[in-house]
């Protein structure tokens, strides 16, 4: 059973999230919070596998709550809920170690898929979030989108053929166990490939590697 905490300052959004998640037999919503402080308190109490946090909440927002959860309840993996127009927040959450990103207006099934993926150790980026992150990085930096994509392809070309396969699966939201089954290898081999990929791409986490996969056109949209 995947134990999930949901946090959003709007009661109707929380009710909707709970309604979606409780349709899955393998997911149990163990707590609801209306702000970041309450989310951290409930996570410390219930130790959920996954916390689904709204990116903007009063008092302590989702990014600050993410940082506190990473510090005090590191086993709890965090999915950030966002809306269009919050790209700067998304980038901060990406750098803060969020494991997943979902658009609030996305399909209900995507929430369940994302929770399962993150609980299984994967990084999950909604394709729409990934596309916005790639475009925003280009718009706010010195590099054009074409340049970023070219750079990402160069980074990917530096990987071994097997590492490129693994990166493509990372970008598509697969866990180490799922990748191992696809490639017919043991999970420890996949873990070694992932560690090598993160080092060679110069990124800190799977979600950031997934962005590179999307920039390079490896991940399925």
Automatic annotation (TrEMBL):
Domain of life: Bacteria
Post-translational modification 4-aspartylphosphate, affected residues: 54
Domain Response regulatory: start-end pairs: 3-119
GO molecular function: DNA binding
UniProt keyword terms in alphabetical order: DNA-binding, Phosphoprotein, Transcription, Transcription regulation
Gene Ontology biological-process entries: phosphorelay signal transduction system; regulation of DNA-templated transcription
Family matches, as Pfam families: GerE, Response_reg
Ranges where the HTH luxR-type domain occurs: 152-217
Name under which the protein is recorded: DNA-binding response regulator, NarL/FixJ family, contains REC and HTH domains
Species the sequence originates in: Paractinoplanes atraurantiacus
């Amino acid at each position: 059973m995947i134990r999930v905490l949901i946090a959003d300052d709007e009661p109707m959004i929380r009710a909707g999230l709970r309604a979606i998640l409780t349709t899955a037999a393998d997911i149990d919503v163990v707590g609801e919070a209306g702000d970041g402080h309450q989310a951290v308190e409930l996570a410390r109490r219930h130790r959920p596998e996954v916390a689904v946090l709204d990116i903007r909440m009063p008092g302590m927002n989702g990014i600050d709550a993410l940082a506190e959860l990473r510090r005090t309840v590191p086993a709890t993996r965090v999915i950030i809920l966002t809306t269009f127009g919050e790209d700067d927040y998304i980038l901060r959450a990406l750098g803060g170690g969020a494991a997943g990103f979902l658009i609030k207006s996305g399909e209900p099934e995507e929430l369940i898929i994302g929770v399962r993926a993150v609980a299984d150790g994967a990084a999950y980026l909604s394709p729409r979030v990934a596309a916005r992150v790639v475009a925003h990085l280009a718009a706010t930096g010195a590099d054009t989108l074409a340049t970023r994509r070219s750079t990402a392809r160069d980074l990917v070309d530096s990987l071994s053929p097997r590492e490129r396969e693994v990166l493509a699966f990372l970008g598509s939201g697969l866990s180490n166990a799922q990748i191992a089954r696809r490639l017919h290898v043991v999970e420890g081999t996949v873990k070694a490939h992932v560690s090598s990929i993160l080092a060679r791409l110069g990124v800190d986490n799977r979600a950031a590697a997934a962005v590179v996969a999307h920039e390079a056109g490896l991940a399925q949209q």
